[in-house]
Amino acid sequence: MLLADIRQYLKERKTASLDEVAIHFDIAADAAKFALNYWVKKGKVNVRGAACGSSCGGCGSAGDHYQWKTAVLEAPVTWLKN
After folding, report:
1. Tens digit of pLDDT for each residue in 12-33?
2. Helix 18-25 crosses helix 29-41 at what angle (to 10 degrees)?
3. What is the value of pTM for the model shown?
4. How far apart are CA 42 and CA 12, in angstroms?
5. pLDDT in tens, 57-82
6. Alpha helix (H) residue ranges in 1-82
7. Is 15 a member of any domain?
8. Is 39 domain-assigned?
9. Is there a domain that residue 81 lies in?
10. Best CA proximity match to 25, nearest among 4, 49, 43
């Protein structure tokens, strides 16, 4: 399934642009955006702005990047308890 494939792709790469996802899976950008937004709504993916801080789209790396959220396990803070 495409959603699971995109999940695995982002987990392995850590971050990818919309264009990178669309090219990798040979799908339209709209389809890639729909699938990525599924994971965003589930709270599993963060959307980050342009890598260079610009939105001109001139270098190919500008635009939103999608990053899979990694689980952060926190140890209980027992030393605060009195």
Report:
1. 999 999 999 999 999 999 999 9
2. 120
3. 0.71
4. 19
5. 545 555 789 999 986 555 555 655 55
6. 2-13, 18-25, 29-41
7. yes
8. yes
9. no
10. 4
> Considering the domain boundaries, does residue 61 fall inside one?
yes
Tokens of 12: 């392995």
Q: Is 66 exposed, middle or buried (0-12, 13-18, 19+ CB in 10 A)?
A: buried
pLDDT of residue 68: 93
Domain that holds residue 22: 2-68
Number of domains in the chain: 1
- CATH for 21: 1.10.10.10
Backbone angles phi, psi at 16, to 5 degrees: -160, 150
Is residue 51 scored above 90 in pLDDT?
no
